[in-house]
Write a structure and sequence with these properties.
The complex is a heterodimer.
Chain A: H1 2-10, H2 17-24, H3 28-33, E1 47-48, H4 59-65, H5 84-101, E2 108-111, H6 114-128, E3 135-139, H7 144-154, E4 159-163, H8 173-179, E5 184-188, H9 202-211, E6 216-219, H10 231-234, E7 238-242, E8 253-257, H11 283-321, E9 325-327, E10 338-343, H12 348-357, E11 360-361, H13 377-381, H14 386-389, E12 392-396, H15 403-423, H16 425-431
Parallel strand pairs in A: 1-11, 3-4, 3-5, 5-6, 6-7
Antiparallel strand pairs in A: 2-8, 7-8, 9-10, 10-12
Helix pairs in contact in A: 1-2, 1-15, 4-11, 5-11, 6-7, 8-9, 11-15, 12-15
Chain B: H1 4-11, E1 24-29, E2 36-44, E3 47-56, H2 59-72, H3 77-82, H4 85-91, H5 106-124
Antiparallel strand pairs in B: 1-2, 2-3
Helix pairs in contact in B: 1-2
The chains are: A alpha/beta, B alpha+beta.
């Protein structure tokens, strides 16, 4: 109750760092632990509802990293003793990550980002099997780091089939079975969606692939750190994720590869990662990832329960306070702490800027927020209108978010939406009883094709 | 990514609204492409005595609309027709390169409203 009172007292202004420390209660100790990182005074501190972009680094992970940026700077591949601590740390991290996702340490390939892991999986697995066939299948809602490598494989003579999703964003296993062919050499379907929160029936999809002897890769970037990941139980042949999704640092990521799976490396020229990924390892980041993986596995169920509770409050209360919201993704088969919706008649980037002014960080799939200025392929794939997709708002909660922060958003968002709707000609049309999304004849403008 | 001036016009847009008995109305963009702007004008003695707008779009689109309305009020129709999207972007202290095309339609919307006024005047004769 005391915390709630504090919130009310500051609810009309942006949250300052000191306010936030009071707001988040116990989490302020985390800030204190990193006290040597100087926070500029008067900077607007953010309530982070965009954990999909980056999770804060666990203090324990940070502490574990420091020696490998200072005294243990050696190269893990060195024969001499300067490299030995780095080499041992690398192998400990490999064991920690393996324990995290339930595989053997030698099945873990360290990379620099989830995008690299996805590229390595899609290109590496497809090219290794090109003698058997040149057909690969991806879902319509994959991340661009899966879709683009698939597209570039077209130039190598591969054929790509994009399997669609239903309006909840789920790939139907029967539909997947229908598009598989004798010459299919790879299927890549994400574990869960960053944008709409939907969790795929991955075990079933893997079974469908394996019945036909086809390997399946899954991008787990959105799932990791939110739900338990057991690659053995899932039955996948390859699985990607990055440390920054599970309270580790940027610059470290994983591609799990089932034993005896053949892969063509993207980077040649070194024996690191058993020849599958050349280049000196980012030891400190990998060490941080290992420690973060260990802690995340230990605490995941309590964190997930906490995040779900906060998300439940948001999904129940937001529609009471703001009319015309469209929630996206599967209503129940979804990531804990993931809230995705469209705020009709209001554009997503404008929402994010105003939330930012109110001290809240969030994300959107609106075309205007994307550098490419294209409407989100994920939101279009689940059948949303272009204009509705423009009003996307994605809130990804983390373990440190508090109910007070949720209440802050519930207070701040309705007047922001009201302000932007008051400016919106679509809302004016809606109030007049017209079709808000009608494209009137003679209306000039531009379309996706000639943007940029 | 936005200049302070853009953010100021976004946070405090000038001349938002509709004019019930507008002399001209212009609309550009459409909901499908992301940004949509509707401009309303009042004309007195050959000058724009009032300009109001409504915009569905990103921060840049709202700031552009606000800036155009401010630049246009008090100008003669001829002067207002000379306002270009490039001038508007310049007045705002620049726009991110990827927003120059899509959100920078304010002058077009204003011109559409003026042409609507001129057409109505022609028809009345």
């Amino acid at each position: 109750m005391r915390i709630l009172k504090k919130r009310t007292a500051i609810s009309t202004d942006p949250v300052t760092l000191s306010d936030r420390n009071r707001l988040v209660g116990s989490s302020s100790t985390v800030v204190a632990n990193l006290g040597h990182i100087i926070c500029r005074p008067n900077i607007v501190a953010h309530v982070n509802f965009d954990h999909a972009a980056a999770t804060p680094v666990l203090p324990e992970a940070y502490q574990a990293m420091v020696p490998y940026l200072t005294e243990h700077f050696g190269n893990p591949q060195s024969l001499h003793s300067l490299g030995r601590p780095a080499q041992q740390a690398l192998e400990l991290a490999r064991e920690q990550v393996a324990w995290f996702i339930n595989c053997a340490p030698q099945d873990v390939i360290f990379t620099a980002s989830a995008s690299e892991s996805n590229n390595l999986a899609v290109k590496g697995l497809a090219l290794a099997s090109r003698g058997r066939g040149r057909h690969i299948v991806v879902s319509a809602i994959e991340h661009v780091s899966v879709l683009e490598p698939a597209r570039s494989l077209k130039r190598e003579g591969f054929e790509i089939t994009v399997v669609g999703v239903d309006r909840n964003g789920v790939v139907n296993p029967e539909e997947l079975a229908r598009v598989l062919r004798p010459d299919t050499v790879l299927v890549s379907i994400q574990h869960a969606s960053n944008e709409i929160g939907t969790i795929q029936p991955l075990e079933e999809l893997a079974r469908v692939c394996h019945e036909k002897g086809i390997p399946i890769h899954s991008d787990g970037t959105a799932a990791i750190g939110r739900i338990g990941v057991d690659v053995a139980a899932l039955g996948v042949d390859a699985y990607s994720f990055s440390a920054q999704s599970c309270y580790g640092p940027k610059g470290a990521a994983v591609l799990y590869l089932r034993p005896k799976t053949r892969i063509v490396p993207l980077i040649d020229g070194g024996i690191q990662e058993r020849g599958r990924r050349a280049g000196t390892e980012n030891v400190a980041a990998i060490v941080g990832m290992g420690r973060a993986a260990e802690i995340t596995r230990e605490h995941l169920s309590e964190w997930a329960e906490h995040m779900s509770l906060l998300a439940k409050r948001l999904t129940e209360e937001l529609p009471r306070r703001i009319p015309r919201l469209v929630f996206t993704g599967h209503p129940t088969q979804r990531l804990p702490g993931h809230v995705s919706l469209c705020v009709e008649f209001v554009e997503g980037e404008a929402l994010l800027l105003m939330l930012d002014d109110a001290g809240i960080a969030a994300a959107s799939g609106s075309a205007c927020t994307a550098r490419t200025l294209k409407a989100s392929h994920v939101l279009l794939a689940i059948g949303l209108d272009h204009a509705v997709a423009q009003s996307s708002l994605v809130l990804t909660l983390g373990k440190d978010n508090t109910m007070a922060e949720v209440e802050l958003l519930l207070d701040k968002l309705p007047p922001i939406v009201e302000r932007l709707r008051a400016i919106s000609p679509l809302y004016a049309r809606f109030l007049r009883g017209e079709d808000p999304y009608a494209v009137k004849t003679g209306q000039t403008g531009h379309n996706e094709e000639n943007e940029g | 990514m936005y200049s302070e001036k853009v953010l100021d016009h976004f946070r405090n847009p000038r001349n938002v609204g509709e004019i019930k008995d507008a002399d001209g109305v212009g609309e550009v963009g459409n909901p499908v492409c992301g940004d949509m702007m509707t401009f309303y004008i009042k004309v007195k003695d050959g000058r724009l005595s009032d300009v109001k707008f409504k915009t569905f779009g990103c921060g840049a689109a709202i700031a552009v609309s606000s800036m155009v309305s401010e630049m246009a009020i008090g100008k003669t129709l001829e002067e207002a027709l000379q306002i270009t999207n490039e001038q508007v972007a310049r007045e705002l202290g620049g726009l991110p390169p990827n927003k120059l095309h899509c959100s920078n339609l304010g002058a077009d919307a204003l011109h559409a409203a003026i042409r609507d006024y001129l057409r109505k005047k022609q028809e009345a004769k």
